[in-house]
Specification:
heterodimer, A: about 475 residues, alpha/beta, Rossmann fold, 15 helices, 19 strands, B: about 300 residues, mainly alpha, two-stranded antiparallel ribbon, 13 helices, transmembrane (chain B), ABC transporter permease (chain B), transmembrane transporter activity (chain B)
């Protein structure tokens, strides 16, 4: 693979956003037929680098060449596409008011003329079937009606679909963070097929396991530069984490004594379709996991608990951490401070007016506690990278006075180091009597839970106390026995 | 909120100043002070209704109150007739006008919430009912307002209309309500993303209800004061407030997409609108030309005011 000329060459690429230096002279080659894994903390510059490569951002300095041709001047998303560079962004870029097929047409202008709908339906339908067999998505579905996992699948299939232009380089920015383990596995298999067929793939992920398994080479980014670049087999989990510059992942889990028993639960909820007497219960001081494949009714139940809908019994105020931050979490016109404080405003009510200094102080406090990368909490929330926006949403919920915190797959796009810190915070706050309900599609995270409910097709399929919880049991319960 | 975004209200004020200067230049300065004084009075009426409309529009796409003119007319006619010109009845008339506003707001929100009718249709259709009620009740009679009310609406301190001062104070209060209270933050959050607002623990429907009630109540107040100012309530007194309430909000720099608004811009825009018409009158433009130019200039100011913000 070193014999051929690189298909993409980035040479000394620099990019600044105001005072923040997002990229400081990055040089990187991509060869045909390889998968490059890209890892680094939130705000290390991964997404910025990929935005430069896909033409969304123009570099302040440095050169971008594709297939030996210098394309730096006048490079844009349109001619990036013409050069065969496709990108699946972390913030999904589909139009919610259009159907799956219509969205496919947007990035494939070759589909035109009479019967374009049919062509688009076939294109996207076939690709979805190829990458995600059994996906259950119709090309006629309105994107806005799809779950975040299915929207992600459509976005991925659209990037791999080929009409008149080749798909030479496909960039996948956190593609698996919204997918459950089965869909993620299918995607990674497809990536290998694509790469073996001569394509080039850049895979960004915080899940080091999938990076190590799928990539040929791995680049580690820190503070806007590439700090390590080598063949994937030269790395292991520990050396990757060390290169990213964070403390080695701690695997010592809290071995707190089970808190169930005589105490009254603070949350009791039954899924609407539950055929038996099973119900979800959570006690003060407990971390309760909601597991299973994505979109099996976990989010719905969490929202019903948040709303105190009929069929739930909730004692105490509830705060929610959104996972789908664009549609459920972030207020895009507001500053970071306003976004954090919105969950706790009551506390800052003076006789007449809100205490603005108090709000800023509170947000600043949480910026430090949870490590949001920004010089000033007065900056707009959209100036933050995706993972840092997610941290602000955590700060909103953890900073509120809610005794119960429900979390809807909240670790999407959050890096390893931050995850460990947030796990620590959750355990610490649980020890003080807070109750957490935690929907996650990452089996690793369930180790932080005292009790796990596995969901399947909208109902609770298994009820596992910590002592009985194993990955096998969770996976076993996630699938129907006849399937 | 201030400082970090280019101030969106600035353009309305720049426009108002430019139009006033152009008029003054044309007339050689004669009557400029009177024009300004009249602008402050009429602008005050615009601002009262625009304050309510601004909160409604800030709630996000689809939210608008089209029943403002009908509400003004109903509140104006009923209160004038009940007072019958008697000064002693003044408090009764004021309370009645506010209660009518409150009632109109309640009906509007009930249509929106219970019958799930889009606000634009709900408030438009309810306004037919209120307008008809005003016609039925009043039968074209023009009852003179009580003396003290007429005096208040036309009084001046050192040449400045008292009503403009009162409405300026109201605007300051509403500015604080928008930026420094739980309610204001809730309105801004809902306008950006209603689902996220709900999931952040904001009581969305309660906030919306309060906003529609407040908007209609302010319209009731405006109808009461305007009837006092113009020597009685007329059935078409609210007519021009339908478009101008929205125009003032938008020219003032409030985002039509919701979640972003400001109060200072309302005053600038209200003065601009009045001074614009005055200028065209001074230039001797006919009614047709005046309307066309008014429309074009409003579009120009909106484009200039939005600058880079409206690119999406």
């Amino acid at each position: 693979m070193t014999a051929t000329a690189p298909i993409v060459r980035l040479d000394g690429v620099e990019k600044r956003f105001g005072a923040v230096r997002a990229l400081s002279g990055v040089s990187l080659d991509l060869a045909a037929g390889e998968c490059l894994g890209l890892v680094g903390h939130n705000g290390a510059g991964k997404s910025t680098l990929m935005n430069v490569l896909s033409g969304v951002l123009t570099p302040d300095a440095g050169r971008v060449s594709i297939a030996g041709q210098d394309v730096t001047g006048g490079y844009s998303t349109a001619n990036a596409q013409a050069h065969g560079v496709r990108c699946v962004f972390q913030e999904l870029s589909l139009c919610p008011n259009l159907t799956v097929a219509e969205n496919a047409r947007i990035s494939h202008p070759a589909i035109r003329g009479f019967g374009w709908r049919g062509q688009a339906r076939r294109l996207i339908g076939n690709k979805l079937g190829e990458v995600f067999p059994g996906h259950g998505i119709s090309p006629n579905d309105l994107v806005g009606d799809l779950s975040i996992a299915r929207r992600q699948m459509v976005e991925i299939a659209r990037a791999f679909a080929v009409t008149d232009r080749p798909a030479r380089v496909v960039i996948l920015d956190e593609p698996t963070s919204s997918l459950d383990s089965v869909a993620a596995g299918l995607l990674l298999k497809h990536v290998r097929r694509f790469v073996e067929g001569g394509g080039t793939c850049v895979l960004i992920s915080h899940l080091l396991g999938e990076i190590l398994d799928t990539s040929d080479r791995i680049a580690v980014m820190r503070d806007g530069g590439v700090v390590a670049l080598d063949a994937a087999r030269a790395f292991d989990r520990r050396s990757l984490v060390a290169a990213m510059g964070s403390v080695t992942e701690a695997h010592g889990q809290a071995d707190a004594a089970p808190k169930r028993g005589t105490a009254q639960p603070v949350v009791r909820a039954r899924p609407l379709k539950q055929p038996d007497e099973r119900e979800l219960t959570a006690h003060a001081g407990e971390v309760v996991g909601l597991a299973g494949l994505s979109g099996q009714g976990q989010t719905e139940l969490l929202v019903r608990i948040f709303d105190r809908a009929p069929g739930t019994d909730v004692a105490g105020p509830v705060a929610l951490v959104a996972g789908d931050r664009q549609s459920d979490g972030v207020f895009p016109l507001w500053s970071i401070a306003e976004n954090i404080a919105v969950g706790s405003l009551r506390r800052f009510k003076g006789k007449w007016l809100l205490d603005e200094a108090g709000i800023t102080h509170f947000a600043e406090d949480w910026r430090r506690k949870i490590g949001i990368r920004t010089p000033d909490v007065g900056n707009p929330i959209l100036s933050l990278s995706g993972g840092n926006q997610q941290k602000a949403l955590f700060a909103r919920a953890l900073g509120s006075d809610a005794r119960i915190v429900v979390m809807d797959d909240p670790m999407r796009g959050v890096d390893v180091g931050t995850k460990q810190e947030v796990y620590g915070m959750i355990r610490e706050q649980a020890a003080k009597g807070r109750c957490f309900l935690w929907y996650t599609t990452e089996t690793d995270e369930l180790r932080n839970c005292d009790h796990v409910y596995v969901f399947r097709e909208g109902i609770i399929a298994a009820d596992l106390p910590r002592a009985e919880m194993t990955e096998e049991k969770v996976i076993h319960a996630s699938f129907r026995e006849d399937a | 909120m201030s400082g970090r975004l280019r101030q969106p209200w600035l353009w309305a004020w720049v426009g108002a100043a430019a139009v006033w200067l152009a008029t003054a230049a044309f007339t050689g300065g004669t009557g400029s002070a009177q024009v300004l004084s009249a602008a402050l009075t009429f602008g005050a009426f615009y601002v009262i209704v625009a304050l309510g409309q601004m909160f409604v529009i800030t709630l996000g796409p689809g939210n608008v109150d089209l029943s403002i003119p009908a509400c003004m007319t109903l509140a104006g006619t009923v209160s004038m007739k009940v007072m019958g010109g008697a000064a002693a009845m003044l408090p009764v008339g004021l309370v009645l006008a506010l209660l009518i506003g409150l009632g109109v707001g309640t009906v509007n929100f009930a249509l929106i919430r219970l019958l799930r009718i889009p606000p634009i249709i709900a408030t438009l259709s309810s306004s037919f009912i209120f307008q008809s009620a005003a016609i039925w009740y009043n039968r074209g009679l023009r009852v003179k307002p009580p003396e003290p009310l007429a005096d208040f609406t036309t009084a001046r301190i050192a040449g400045v209309p008292v009503i403009a001062l009162a409405v300026a104070a109201l605007a300051v209060a509403m500015h604080l309500l928008l930026t420094r209270t739980l309610y204001g933050r809730a309105v801004l959050a809902i306008g950006q993303n209603q689902r996220a607002a709900h999931l952040a623990g904001i009581r969305v429907e309660r906030t919306r209800a309060l906003t529609y009630l407040m908007c209609a109540t302010l319209a009731g107040l405006c109808g009461f004061l305007l009837a006092g100012f113009s020597g009685g309530a007329a059935l078409n007194m609210g007519e021009e407030y339908l478009l101008s309430s929205i125009a003032v909000v938008v020219i003032g720099g409030t985002s039509v997409a919701g979640g972003y608004s400001n109060v200072p811009g309302l005053w600038g825009a209200a003065l601009f609108l009045f001074l614009l018409v005055t200028m065209l009158n001074t230039f001797g433009a006919g009614a047709g030309v005046r309307l066309v130019l008014t429309g074009l200039i409003i579009i120009g100011v909106i484009v200039a005011a939005s600058g880079g913000r409206r690119r999406i």
